[in-house]
Write a structure and sequence with these properties.
Nudix hydrolase domain-containing protein (chains A, B), 284 residues, four-stranded mixed sheet, 2 domains, alpha+beta, homodimer, Nucleoside Triphosphate Pyrophosphohydrolase, NUDIX_hydrolase-like_dom_sf (chains A, B), Aminopeptidase
């Protein structure tokens, strides 16, 4: 950056106010934790951004602000390097934006952790003939191995686990279902770079029975005897799979209670599902 | 970037091989999904990087590669903008690095989703006198409200839920515990920007009883009658809290079965815990 470029950048940022020239401050929004969120939306030259950022942070420090967040849409990628050089660190990123953060307070840094887990579901759908809905996949670990498995999928950000299970079964097999219970779940680590994984086995009740398999991801789909499913060598070989199969058999053959759901309201007024053993809770 | 800068950059990347000048290729590692992972570690000029990246991608396309990942430590922030201008998108970021990705294959994009959930725990620890271990916090939503709550905390990336509960209780109160069961869990959304949240209520058995409270985060800690805990106006007012309190009371007073854990081995050979209702599974 040449001296003349800097001078030009400063000049562009000058505004006349009561006859005094000032650097234009960035328009941050206060959060409820004594912090500032900068939602950068309009294109800006790196040099002008740096001068405005320095002036803004100076003011926020005087105001006793603590965490400063900068959200940069990917179109403003030119502002990532200057932000880092001004002391910001990455916090998280999605395909179309990056969030940076800097702790400018004197107290202990209380910047919250980034999301650490991906969440998946496996759907246990049975009909009255003790048959379970199973698929073979076109991609991934099980491709071409002849393994019949439950429909599975990833729970989206903002999606309820119970709804994700219903959606995935519909997408992969065309079967309509309703949610019954979560029978079990598994937590595993380093499933995706350093991230961890939570996988919920959901029991669903079928509301339709004619399979319309999805073309691109699903090689085959069918109703299969639950005993035949559980007897597959692949299932028997891995106790992660066989223990889940045993839980599903227990649900059909014994009085197994999983976790069902109730809608609740959180302290901040949002609706969210709590999952627990409602059968045991309702005992006298 | 001036023409002479480009020429210099190209020249610096030239290597003589069998008398032919070539741009140096980047050293990517193949992943198991037909992709390439570039772990950039050494500093590099942006211009040189762009030429090497173009040449490398050209070769990877010929080899039928599909997803190309670039991991950039924060020290190499100068390579973020050139990567985006070459067609890469953000995938995720942690404080000290950003991961970018580009799908160069002809088939459907199967880039996996980013982590979507944060995971937290609340610890239900009771002694023989029907007392529960509770704290008041120095920070956050409950600061200064006089609410007694279970010790809570965030599950780290790579940490087991059961272990996180034991760790948080030890950190906040000094009490040693062992894991018993997960009694319930709650899923909520937009708890942190767009990210979702899973909160597990873990029952722990105390192995010690003398409280040594943590200084910076915890205002006060004590053993409190479970009925007194559940009767707090704040708990009664929010059914998210009261339903959890009811589950905990049911655990003490009725025959309530939560989910206990067994270690299992996944298809890829990793150890991970499966959580389920082991009491019902062991029924005849």
């Amino acid at each position: 950056m040449s001296t003349s470029t800097i001078a030009l950048a400063i000049e562009k940022q000058m505004v006349l106010e009561n006859g005094v020239q000032q650097v234009e401050l960035l328009n941050g929004v206060e959060d409820s934790y004594g912090g500032i969120i900068l939602n950068m939306e309009e294109p800006m030259e790196s040099e002008a951004f740096v001068y405005s950022l320095r002036a803004s942070i100076s003011q926020w420090k005087q105001q006793g602000k603590r965490g400063v967040w900068i959200k940069l849409p990917i179109q403003l990628v030119n502002l990532v390097e200057p932000s880092v050089k001004e002391g910001f660190r990455y916090h998280h990123a999605e395909p179309d934006y990056i969030m940076l953060v800097n702790w400018i307070g004197n107290s202990t840094n209380t910047i919250p952790e980034n999301a650490s887990h991906r969440v998946g579901i496996g759907a246990f759908v049975t009909n009255d003939q003790r048959e379970v809905l199973v698929v073979q996949e076109n991609n991934g670990t099980f491709k071409g191995k002849g393994v019949w498995k439950f429909p599975t999928g990833v729970v989206n950000e903002g999606e309820d686990i119970c709804m994700a299970a219903i959606r995935e079964v519909k997408e992969e097999t065309g079967i309509d279902t309703e949610f019954v219970e979560i029978l079990a779940f598994r937590q595993s680590h380093k499933s995706f770079f350093t991230k961890s994984d939570l996988f919920f086995v959901c029991m669903l009740r079928p509301l339709s029975f004619d399979i319309q398999k999805q073309e691109t991801e699903i090689e085959a789909a069918q109703w299969m005897s639950i005993n035949e499913y559980a007897a597959q060598p692949f299932i028997q070989k891995h106790n992660g799979f066989s223990s889940v199969a045993n839980v599903c058999l227990a649900k059909l053959e014994k009085d197994y209670a999983g976790f069902s759901r109730i809608p609740t309201t959180t302290a901040s007024g949002k609706t969210s599902y709590v999952y627990f053993n409602s059968r045991d809770l309702s005992k006298l």
